[in-house]
Write a structure and sequence with these properties.
homodimer; 379 residues; alpha/beta; Rossmann fold; 2 domains; 7-stranded parallel β-sheet; 4-stranded mixed β-sheet; 16 helices; 45% helix; globular
Chain lengths: 379, 379
């Protein structure tokens, strides 16, 4: 049995992971779950799983003990995530947290020599160099759960790193792919949350519409596969059928294709080399046709901005991520418009310094500073 | 240096292999070449390569010695192919012969423990069971050069055979893809030889137009990858950009994509695990769109017929191949029409017995019988 400590069990990726653990209950065992305030979802999971550790906001302690009297409860506020990782040291850590809060947990698990299944893209976005350094001193493996990176990983299996010519990931274009730049001013939160292909959480759905998600994925790919930015491309592919492509130096090109079903990368990451049968109905004939376009830098101006920040290296990438998180929150609250997301990010990048050493304390405190600034900023 | 004995050096695949051996002359060495009557092409090769063995029709012996006095000449008529293989026992055998004549050479090389790079699809079509048996008792590897099978092989690298769900190969539809069944009666040899995507020899270009080529490729895939016929599909894909697709049981699907450039599979087969850089400009954005359709069984009636013969097993597959070779020859000579290719094949299948033990002597004598019958058959 492969033990799974699931950080962020109540989110979109977390609940799909739980369903797969239930479907393949002879292979996986859920030993710890964490959430913030989604008590109903957590209670439901506890009815079906005899977990050792539960982490939630402190206020839910009694409710957790009512449902799972044998489990250990740690409060989220008291380093609960790190305590859950330590308490299940023989488990694989599935990091399905949303936002830069995931970085510390990822680093902690790697330092514990625990394999990390990484759905939390912000870990690598804000702490890529720290994670790479931690991996050098650890036996832990870092396995991507994102569909694009899981796709690249499948294409790279059995291949030599030195044979890579370039990596390509695809972008659907998000909810406003066919809306002109001018008309973006008037789009609503409800329209933004309708992703054409994928069913995902609110944050990533907005990040898809702004193309910021693709910036994060390029950064992730850079650190996960140790490939320089000039050898990573993103292209527009509205059907989201081709997820990742690897061009090899010998002229061979492999593409990972399939339905927009996050369960496939989730299961692939969890199972490792174990052979499991997943029921998936997919064929290209039913799909009919696939289309590919360049990402228009005028229409998706945040993409070029984000990639420039990534290439620059330094603390700006933390600014970018934190400003984006707050901007998306403010958009979802109806506080700012869709195009203001970019304005807010740009203002933060102008305001904050880039040349600050990337240590964990610096990253965490800078992240807080940017959030505070971005929250108050008048647009 | 990897030594290459190239059978069929003057054909389309053979000449491209020679060009690659010249481009990567620090990796490959051409030690033997064979052809039938293309003396000019062979003389040109001999000006650039110091080969040990040359095989051609007996009449060219003196001309070969004039150009390559240090080479050993064997006549094609006197088991020249087998002698060339024996004389270069430390070489990899690149079988780029056209037609069932390639089977004996493939078997001979495998029995000699020499790796075989197989572009001669008829070897597996008519002698699949014999080749599989020979491989069981040999250290030789059989490596496909066909673009579809090279594609499947790249997708399968680093994967477990038991994880294969199904294999899919693509068909361009050939020169008459957009011609209705009714209008096929009037097409000319010149029209048939214009393949929309690939630059190939005459025989395979006609086989593409009739879809017989795809029948052969399904049979090849069956033997090369040890996958049952019900798990091998062929689909229509007019752009010839996706060459082969592997669906895995865990829901992952890998596709091999790229330009219609036979040099990529040729180089991949020749180089093995050696890292080489091949200059290839390809990207999906330039391509723009890809289309996939089922193969219409009414329009491409030879496809279903051929697959039925393959599934049946037995000597009929030899009948199918020999009748097809003669039918294509007769069409290229202007002796029969394009739709008569199917008529002639059907008549041969009706005439000859299927239940004959598949031994090499039986296959070779049956092949001759069918050719004689098909050559004389009035249409």
């Amino acid at each position: 049995m492969k033990k799974i400590t699931l950080l962020g069990a109540s989110g979109s990726i977390g609940t799909q992971a739980v369903e797969l653990i239930e479907e393949f209950d002879e292979t996986f065992e859920l030993v710890a779950i964490t959430a913030n305030k989604s008590i109903e979802t957590i209670e439901k999971i506890l009815h079906h799983h005899d977990v050792q550790v539960v982490v939630m906001a402190k206020e839910y302690e009694q409710r957790i003990y009512d449902v799972a009297p044998n489990a250990t409860f740690y409060a989220l506020e008291d380093d609960g995530l790190l305590k859950a990782i330590d308490a299940t040291a023989d488990a694989t850590v599935f990091n399905a947290l949303v936002g830069s809060v995931g970085l510390e947990a990822t680093l902690h698990a790697i330092k514990n020599n625990q394999d990390v299944l990484l759905a939390n893209k912000e870990s690598l976005v804000v702490g890529g160099p720290l994670i790479k350094e931690a991996l050098l001193n650890s036996n832990a493996q870092l396995i991507p759960v994102d569909s694009e990176h899981a796709a690249l990983r499948e294409c790279l299996k059995g291949k030599k790193h030195s044979d890579i010519e370039k990596l390509v990931i695809t972008a659907s274009g998000g909810s406003f792919r066919d809306v002109s730049k001018e008309n973006l001013k008037n789009v609503s939160k409800e329209e933004a949350l309708k992703h054409p292909n994928w069913s995902m959480g609110a944050k990533i759905t907005i990040d898809s519409a702004t193309m910021m998600n693709k910036v994060f994925e390029v950064i992730e790919a850079h650190y996960l596969f140790d490939v320089s930015y000039d050898k990573i491309e993103a292209i527009l592919h509205k059907e989201s059928i081709v997820h990742g492509i690897v061009h090899f130096k010998d002229g061979n090109v492999l593409a990972h294709i399939g339905p927009s079903d996050m369960r496939i990368p989730i299961l692939s990451a969890m199972k490792g080399d174990t052979s499991l049968r997943y029921h998936s109905v997919f064929d290209l004939v039913t799909q009919g046709s696939l289309h590919f376009e360049p990402i228009d830098p005028h229409r998706f101006s945040l993409f070029d901005l984000g990639i420039a920040v990534a290439k620059e290296k330094g603390m700006h990438v933390v600014t970018l991520n934190a400003a984006n998180e707050i901007a998306v929150q403010r958009f979802l609250k109806g506080d700012i418009g869709f195009v203001d997301i970019e304005t807010l990010i740009k203002k933060c990048l102008d305001y904050f310094e880039n040349h600050i050493p990337l240590t964990l304390p610096n990253i965490l405190s800078h992240d807080k500073l940017v959030r505070r600034y971005a929250t108050k900023l008048k647009i």
